[in-house]
Write a structure and sequence with these properties.
The complex is a heterodimer.
Chain A: H1 18-23, H2 28-34, H3 38-48, H4 60-65, E1 75-80, H5 89-96, H6 98-112, E2 116-121, H7 126-141, E3 157-162, H8 172-179, E4 203-207, H9 208-225, E5 236-243, E6 249-254, E7 257-258, H10 259-266, E8 276-280, E9 289-290, H11 291-296, E10 298-299, H12 301-306, E11 315-320, H13 325-339, H14 345-362, H15 368-381, H16 389-403, H17 405-414, H18 424-428
Parallel strand pairs in A: 1-2, 1-4, 2-3, 5-11
Antiparallel strand pairs in A: 5-6, 7-10, 8-9, 8-11
Chain B: E1 3-6, E2 9-12, H1 19-26, E3 49-52, E4 59-60, E5 70-73, H2 77-91, H3 108-116, E6 134-135, E7 140-142, H4 152-159, E8 166-169, E9 176-179, H5 192-196, E10 202-204, E11 217-222, E12 231-237, E13 240-246, E14 277-281, E15 287-289, H6 291-304, E16 309-313, H7 319-333, E17 338-340, H8 364-373, H9 380-388, E18 394-398, H10 409-416, E19 421-426, H11 431-434, E20 444-449, E21 458-461, E22 467-470, H12 483-490, H13 515-523
Parallel strand pairs in B: 1-5, 16-17, 16-18, 18-19, 19-20
Antiparallel strand pairs in B: 1-2, 3-4, 3-5, 6-7, 7-10, 8-9, 11-12, 12-13, 14-15, 14-20, 21-22
The chains are: A alpha/beta, B alpha+beta.
Chain lengths: ~425, ~525
């Protein structure tokens, strides 16, 4: 069942502006938080069990506590470079409730001791950037940002940084490189950003949804926040439902919610006469689930990990029986080939190779050994690079080919799709 | 000082050192392209993967710090398979044009393929097309298709030369090395990028297409381009010398050398050298003879005019030569008028912050030390005065090997012209001495060709007083002499000299039974010819 926790007032236009936001309890939690001890906030966030909503699902409180305990300047960066294909929840949050994010960020900055924070927004998000900039201006005027916030003695500045639309800049070290003004390429770890990040200073990078949720942890306390969700996956999460469902869109549900319910109830079910074939549960880099697996899946980190996939950014892509899996893999491989930063050899060469093999198959030039070659190449790209983009390209290949091998073999033998029937070449020319 | 085990060998490394450094210390081979000890860690080639006990995933050796008791291995099948695949990723878009590639024979890809590869290629798709023959600057040419994007050259211009000309442009497998807009790879250290390029992507315009590297021998020596005294390797064959590359020496030059120093091979080659002893008496025509014979002949001249003989030395010879030359001449003839020809007095202290020094002589310090030893305290002005007053009849000059840095050559020759007899010792061919240009007006001119720095052994004392001994690398001109030998001959002593008679290459009557084939092969032998770019 859909809950309205973070998205309670998203239907109200006035919630976008400071006055409307304040009318519905805005900036009350900031006042409360500024009267707490920073360590107290970190402990509270830790106890709430909040996990990163961007994809990796790492404990937020834990991440914060990796910061060195000294007085070095440090930065908080909000990762709003929502690049994972299928994800569009951060955009909604920034457009409908910019102050929710800003309040969460000020509280988080206070907790980690950062005097300056950035919101790194992907370049294509024109409107959200305008909304955020306007909201930050409002917050400055009202004294929620700037010097001596609400008389607490805490100073904080916030800026919006516009990316150029590269997928790799959603990776935290890639984002930091881009923020520093260099080419958006991930950096070698260690050192981790919490030790040496933006401008070689300790830096915390969190997703939009994670930072917005901090405000609610302050409001309801750690135990209050745990009202929703499971023991290991606390709270609610926004899921971007897309693909072959009747009513696609963003839905906030508690973690642990059955995936089938999300598709059938929130998504309104399949289109008439269509059967569910597969679901990509966490953005394009998450391994695909077959219809049987979908029936068993619940939307939390552990259950999906048990099924060999991941919750990721919460982009649920529903695939019905009218879709050709070879075709879909072609689209994905084109994407990863285009987005690989080109730093590490396995990813730079591997993404291009995978793309070429899949397109050879799609153009009717495939050989049967190409299917095994896809698996071999993907296997050897996995875990061999600086960042996870290589894995993100390899995992869909491995799951698509192993779970829908018959479609690939049919395509190679017949030179056409098993499902669609028409030629790829006809479709594209 | 953590201890770790590398492929079963126990080694102790310094705190904070990486597994890569431990491998080097244990002298165990490990494949790598992007890692270079003189540059920062990039960790992008992913070839140096190794198994660490207790770690489920293979890690890269170049960015993993050694911890106490770490057990590292590259022997497992998992690692071998991994390296094979990473190598394959390097090769799928590589043009594999080894037969026409300059790097062939010293290429990282070839080496690793022989060690880890030797498999059937699985790539059946079209290769990515990139730019060929990109002119990066006055010294370097780039072939983007051969490039494996290890980023060594980019890091070099960022971190060592600090000129920031290079960058990687575009993304994914369309990435290419290139010059930043409005710049070209034009700095005094640009050719180091060619050395550190593990493949044939960056080639030196000077060396390109001149020789296949397997036709070259190499030997370590010390650069005589300036007083830094970089440790270098010279590459040569029977045709002469072809190139110079730096050799690592942390105390002197690290891993690098300057572009200027790479030209030193040229003035050791035949075409820039005096090959025979030359005698020009009283305006008569030139007479050539063996250097040894000429030096012997000059014994009488030096002996008879010993009180009117002065010696001029440049800082381009070895300490041993100075010692024996000055020592012999003062002992035998009591010659104490020895002068130091310092062509770069004004820029002696110049230093560009990395390697290049203003003092363009490799052994100025050594010369001054020998002067001290033999208690020689002379001023250049005295020489000028005594030449002016004609009190010097014989002038023995040990001239420069590297003519390009002796800008004052003409003015000095004019000064030396004031002596009656000019005895010129030197390796480099000074045209003015033998031509009728009128720049040299001495009555009698004697030229004794000397050995260049690669043809002798000795010691150079560099700017910091560090004594660097080097050995003989090769012989280019057999009959030439060292200063030591010249001094012995001047003193009228006997010396076994190299024979002038060249051995005939083939004597029909001495043919061995198996020599037929050799002769046959000789007809098809590769002819070395130096071309132009």
């Amino acid at each position: 069942m859909e809950v309205k926790y973070l998205t309670e007032f998203y239907h109200l236009d006035e919630f976008r502006f400071l006055d409307g936001y304040k009318k519905h309890g805005g900036y009350v939690q900031l006042d409360k938080a500024l009267k707490m001890q920073p360590q107290q906030i970190i402990d509270e966030v830790k106890a709430s069990g909040l996990r990163g909503r961007g994809g990796a699902g790492f404990s937020t409180g834990m991440k914060w506590s990796f910061l060195p305990k000294n007085n070095e300047p440090r930065y908080l960066v909000c990762n709003a470079d929502e690049g994972e294909p299928g994800t569009f929840k951060d955009r909604l949050m920034m457009e409908r409730a910019p102050h929710q994010l800003i309040e969460g960020m000020i509280i988080s900055s206070f907790a980690v001791g950062s005097k300056k924070s950035y919101i790194y927004v992907r370049g294509e998000y024109d409107f959200p950037i305008k909304v955020l900039e306007q909201a930050i201006e409002e917050a400055y005027k009202a004294g929620y940002l700037g010097k001596n916030i609400l008389g607490s003695g805490f100073d904080h500045d916030m800026d919006v940084y516009r990316g150029a639309g590269a997928y790799i800049c959603g990776e935290e070290t890639g984002l930091i490189s881009s923020l520093e003004g260099s080419k958006g390429q991930p950096k070698l770890k260690p050192p981790f950003p919490a030790v040496q990040g933006y401008l070689r200073k300790p830096t915390i990078v969190n997703n939009v949804e994670t930072l917005a949720a901090v405000k609610y942890i302050i409001r309801d306390g750690a135990q209050g926040y745990r009202k929703y969700g499971t023991e290991k996956a606390a709270g609610t999460k926004l899921f971007s439902l897309s693909g072959n469902v009747k009513t696609p869109g963003n839905y906030e549900v508690p973690l642990g919610y059955p995936l089938m319910d999300l598709i059938m109830k929130e998504g309104g079910g399949m289109k008439p006469g269509r059967k569910l074939k597969a679901v990509i549960p966490g953005g394009s880099s998450a391994p695909v689930l077959t219809a049987e697996e979908v029936a068993k899946a619940t939307l939390d980190y552990e259950c999906l990990a048990g099924l060999g996939t991941m919750l990721g950014s919460g982009a649920v892509i529903v695939i019905d029986d009218s879709q050709c899996m070879v075709d879909m893999l072609g689209v994905l491989m084109h994407f990863y080939h285009h987005e690989s930063c080109g730093q590490c050899t396995p990813c730079r060469e591997g993404t291009g190779w995978l793309n070429k093999i899949v397109h050879s198959i799609l153009e009717g030039r495939g050989r049967l050994q190409d299917i095994d070659l896809l698996i071999k190449v993907a296997d050897n790209m996995k875990g061999r690079t600086i960042c996870a983009l290589s894995d993100a390209a390899a995992l869909p290949v491995l799951s698509f080919v192993s779970k829908f091998r018959d479609e690939f073999e049919f395509y190679v033998r017949e030179g056409r799709s098993k499902v669609r029937g028409n030629f790829y070449a006809q479709m594209h020319h | 000082m953590p201890k770790c085990t590398i492929n079963g060998k126990e080694v102790e490394v310094k705190d904070g050192q990486t597994i890569m450094e431990a491998f080097k210390k244990a002298d165990e081979p490990i494949a790598h392209y992007c890692y270079h000890p003189g540059l920062s860690v990039a960790g992008v080639c992913r070839l140096c993967i190794c198994d660490i006990e207790g770690n489920p995933r293979p890690q890269i050796a170049c960015n993993t710090t050694v911890t106490e008791g770490m057990k590292v291995s590259t022997k497992s099948d998992k690692v071998k398979e991994g390296v094979k695949w990473v190598l394959d990723f390097h090769l799928i878009n590589h043009p594999l044009d080894c037969p026409i590639c300059d790097q062939a024979g010293e290429c990282g890809l070839q080496e690793q393929y022989m060690a880890f590869g030797k498999y059937e290629p699985e790539m059946a798709e079209k290769k990515v097309k990139k730019h060929k023959v990109v002119d990066l600057g006055p010294t370097v040419v780039l072939d983007s298709e051969r490039c494996i994007l290890c980023s060594r050259c980019v890091r070099f211009t960022e971190e060592v030369s600090k000129t920031n000309e290079l960058g990687i442009f575009n993304r994914g497998d369309r990435s290419e090395i290139g010059c930043v807009e409005g710049k070209s790879l034009d700095n005094k250290y640009s050719l180091n990028t060619v050395d550190i390029c593990p493949v044939g992507a960056l080639t030196s315009k000077d060396f390109r297409f001149k020789q296949r590297v397997w036709y070259l021998k190499d030997s370590d020596t010390v650069c005589n381009g300036c007083s830094t005294g970089c440790n270098v390797k010279v590459y040569f064959n029977k045709e002469g010398m072809f190139r110079v590359k730096p050799v690592h020496n942390e105390q002197v030059n690290g891993y690098w050398m300057c572009d200027e120093g790479r030209n030193i091979y040229q003035f050791a080659n035949k075409e820039n050298r005096f090959e025979k002893g030359i005698k020009k008496l009283g305006g008569a025509s030139l007479e050539t003879m063996l250097p040894g014979a000429l030096a012997k002949e000059l014994h009488q001249l030096v002996k008879s005019g010993k009180d009117q003989t002065a010696v001029v030395l440049t800082g381009q010879y070895t300490s041993e030569e100075y010692d024996s030359f000055i020592g012999t001449l003062s002992k035998e003839f009591g010659i104490k008028k020895v002068y130091h020809w310092n062509q770069n007095e004004k820029q002696m202290g110049d230093f560009d912050g990395l390697l290049i020094r203003g003092d363009k002589n490799p052994n100025t310090k050594g010369l001054l030390k020998v002067f001290e030893k033999h208690q020689i305290k002379t001023e250049w002005q005295d020489l000028e005065k005594s030449l002016e007053s004609k009190s010097i009849k014989n002038l023995i000059v040990a001239g420069p090997e590297n003519l390009s840095v002796f800008a004052d050559m003409d003015s000095k020759l004019a000064l030396f012209s004031k002596a009656e007899n000019l005895i010129w010792l030197g390796a480099a061919k000074v045209e003015a001495l033998t031509s009728d240009s009128g720049k040299v007006k001495n009555k009698n001119i004697f030229v004794i060709p000397l050995k260049s720095f690669v043809e002798k052994e000795g010691t150079f004392v560099n700017h910091s007083g560090l004594e660097q001994k080097f050995k003989k690398a090769t012989t280019i001109l057999h009959e030439t002499l060292t200063l030591t030998e010249v001094a012995i001959l001047f003193a009228g002593k006997n010396l076994t000299l190299p024979s002038a008679v060249e051995k005939p290459a083939f004597v029909e009557s001495q043919r061995r039974s198996d020599q037929v084939q050799l002769e046959h092969r000789k007809k098809n032998e590769f002819v070395f010819k130096r071309g132009t770019l």
